[in-house]
Amino acid sequence: MSKALAKKVLLIGWDAADWKVINPLMDSGQMPALEKLVNNGVIANLATLDPPLSPMLWTSIATGKKADKHGILGFAEPDSQKGGIRPVNVTSRKVKAIWNILHKEGMKSNVVGWWPSHPAEPINGTMISNFYQQANAEYGKIWKMLKGTIHPKSMVKELRSMRVHPGELTENHILPFVPLAAKIDQKKDKRITSVAKITADAASIQASSTHLMENTDWDFMAVYFDSIDHYCHGFMKFHPPQRSGIPDNLFEYYKDVVKGGYIYHDMMLERLLQLADKDTTVILISDHGFHSDHLRPESLPKIPAAPALEHSPYGIFCVSGPNIKKDERIYGASLLDITPTILTMFGLPVGKDMDGKVLTNIFDKKVIPEIINSWEEIEGDFGTHPPTEQEDAFESAEALQQLVELGYIEDPGKDKKIAMEKTANEAKYNLSRVHSSNKNYSKAIDILEKLFEKDNKDIRYNLDLANNYLKVQNFEKTTKILKHLRTIDNRAIPNADLLEGILLTNQGKSKKALEFLKKAEKSNPRLPGIHIELGKLYLITRRYEKAQTTFEKALSIDDSSVGAFHGLGLSLLRQGKYEEAANEILNAIGLIYHFPPAHYHLGETLFMMKKYKESSEAFEVCLTMAPKLTKARKWLVNIYQNNYKNIERAEFHQNILNELMKGKVTIVSGLPRAGTSLMMQMLEAGGIEVLVDDKRKANENNPKGYYEYSSVKKLRSNNSCIYTAEGKSVKVIAQLLANLPKDLEYKIIFMQRNMYEILSSQQKMLGKKGNAFPMGIAKAFEKELEKIDVWQKKEPNVNLIYVDYKSVIENPDTEINKINEFLDSQLDTDKMKSVIDPNLYRNKV
């Protein structure tokens, strides 16, 4: 156990709190408690996760793990006991939360209102579940408390009386939110009732929290308020400035609700801070933000969890207390980092299986976190529910249905079954989004395909399937989905145009891609993602100034777009504007720290600025996130050998490079005269070592050389020569591919070319210029190509892409980008392009 950095920790959650709303209120003196906290501590943007659904996110905050690990997959779940559905329960959580770990270590925790936390877990301390504040009876009638709301049971009596019912609130409580409340016809307009409920719920959480802080011993306190999120979903549409379509009277009535909600939270924060002694480290966070400006959606589609579209991707983070820096900002924080950081504060180890990191840069001293394999592997009392009460709600729902079919229990009813199925499908869809954000595209596709079979008219399933098919470069299935998408709903066509543009970009059809992206831009010019994709296309086609202006346009719409900052930095880098490029790339890293391409390009930029030490540091950080990115290691070998002398580190990275390349061979293949020699030249120029022996000299048929390794001709009888090609590139004609050794891994670039051009070139090479077109040979070659396509799909150690020779000549930028991505982005694309000579494309159709 390491030395503790905090005696006590108070964690406060404000769902949906956003700096864009907070900063003007602090500047005008209307949030003094938070301003004091900010000035005496560290602040940051807190990156959220996808999908941005609160029960999933707050569970990730409490566990340091993503939803595919912790198991909370939405707002509701099937009810295995009664049939139908129920709000998501803590019993569906599959891993330990921070308070469970602290329980095991003998510490006392109070947890109030966390979502989800029902039924309350039997931890050392007090837990009040997220059902506590929800009034389930009219004012004046008995307000029952659900079983399991409070642990320990001995606390039920004193905490029950601290709940605030919406009916208790008077006009003095409502007027700060709605100053013109008296003018509203409340029989027709029920919005004031909503304000009262949200406000009362927050008061219940505050009252019970302050009571526990004053009257119990605790080491850790977690308090969760959902109120800002509810104020925003109900009233952000009325938040100044007035939007078109909002009636004047409604704007005047409700324009102060969101502001009032933030000020109310600051008042509650002030009291919490008064009760937290000087030895307490205070952490204030939100799980995501909320669009308060022009990015607010005009309307919401009729899909489940549609309100999440109003969320912005960055929440707030503020920490203050002993051993914490003062009045500083840090970058790259994620909500997954909260639990690992709190564990380190308490001197406890962080699990390797946690997806977050320790925010070591918040401390005023150097901190080296202690690491263990997993808290899940440690036995003992963690204050969790007994295994008999823990369940996978979706598995138990299926078990319930089986019992119905067997006749053991009564059928809960048709409507309940439909509700259960819809809820289960929604959870599966959310899980597919988690897998996709983790780059586990095959897992996402597997779920989405099954959902698509059930409902192929759900636009979300169509769009997500197309996106994931694109990620794995299954262009055939992407095309099929996009065709289907265009038949479902005209509202989906702009999205289909955008995806069609991305698809065509990936296929190397940049001119056609530009047409579709421009159509998408015309349909929705205020969507930053369209401008980002346009910018990427301009980068691929080396139109760097155009890329720059396009990314700047994206940032004018959304000034927190990571993709736009990175794209802008890259376009400036390619123009030689190195200082500007570094600033923009650092902006991207500041928003999302775990972003390997940004660190890579920062390293490249700093090298161009001759800041070799800083450049090496950027590449080293990149490799901690993407250890197989060989191009970054090659940069480091070069820097450590030639610029920032460190021979030991150079050898270290060279040894890893050698290990990474073991057993891997890059093959250039195709029919003879399909452009294989040109591709070998391009790979050599790009930085891949080629295996050649130059026994056949360059001549008028191949003026730049054949790039052959003569031993390859004997593959049918002896394939041992391929082992000398490990970590290199070698040319193997199509007819010999099936003879490659089975124990190596191959990336094959297969050159395609019009058959007439291939045979015409072969005939000329053989001196048979006057002969008729050899139809028999053409048919034999076509059959050979069909066999190769079948072969490569069956071989688990083969990864093959097709590259068109004509496209390489006429559209080199797109094809080179595709090849570079296929080979793990390790090539110098500018040098690859420099060896292409269009004058050598002599046998054309």
Question: What is this structure's SSE topology?
Answer:
Blueprint: E1 8-14, H1 19-27, H2 32-39, E2 41-47, H3 54-63, H4 67-70, E3 76-78, E4 85-87, H5 98-104, E5 109-112, E6 125-128, E7 150-151, H6 156-160, H7 171-174, H8 191-215, E8 220-225, H9 227-235, H10 248-254, H11 257-275, E9 280-285, E10 289-290, E11 311-312, E12 314-320, E13 328-329, E14 333-334, H12 338-345, E15 350-351, E16 371-372, H13 393-406, H14 414-437, H15 441-454, H16 459-471, H17 475-488, H18 493-506, H19 510-523, H20 528-540, H21 544-557, H22 562-574, H23 578-591, H24 596-608, H25 612-625, H26 630-642, H27 647-661, E17 664-670, H28 676-686, E18 729-731, E19 745-752, H29 755-765, H30 775-794, E20 798-804, H31 805-810, H32 812-822, H33 829-834
Parallel strand pairs: 1-8, 1-9, 2-13, 2-14, 5-6, 5-8, 15-16, 17-18, 17-19, 19-20
Antiparallel strand pairs: 2-12, 3-4, 6-7, 9-12, 10-11
Helix pairs in contact: 8-9, 8-11, 9-11, 14-15, 15-16, 16-17, 16-18, 17-18, 18-19, 19-20, 20-21, 20-22, 21-22, 22-23, 22-24, 23-24, 24-25, 25-26, 26-27
Can I get a quick summary?
This protein is an alpha/beta fold and 845 residues long.
Helix content: 40-55%
Integer-rounded radius of gyration: 31 Å
Count of individual helical segments: 33
Shape field = elongated
Beta strand count: 20
Q: What amount of the residues lies in strands?
A: 5-15%
Distance between the termini: 74 Å
Main beta-sheet annotation: 10 strands, mixed
Give the low-pLDDT segments.
none
Q: What structural class do helix, strand and pairing data support? A: alpha/beta
Q: Report the mean per-residue pLDDT as an integer.
A: 91
